[in-house]
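thread: overnight batch results

M.L. [08:02]
morning all. the overnight job finished for the chain we discussed friday. pasting input first so we're all looking at the same thing
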Amino acid sequence: MIAAVQALAQEARGGEAIGFANPVIYAGHGSKAYHDVTDVPTGSELAVARVDFVNGCDSTDRLVTSVRSLGKDTSLKAVEGYDDVTGVGSPANDHVRSYRGH
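M.L. [08:03]
and the structure it wrote out:
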């Protein structure tokens, strides 16, 4: 998500490089600039049912159905605050607008 925001910011500047963005990104950590993303955003566990192509292109070789539960499919967990899955979180709208304007 952060990479997409950076691409939009660079595009808004006419393709001019925006430079090293980490200080700006991490300066907003823990503030209302970001939405904290966790494995249990509603207070209870969530999952999504997926249907995928076996061959990755089309249904010729059949479909596979799976259920993916947040925080249960890998060793990585999205916890409160900074984590290796979601980093500082997802940008809030106001922060995206101000970032694009830099």
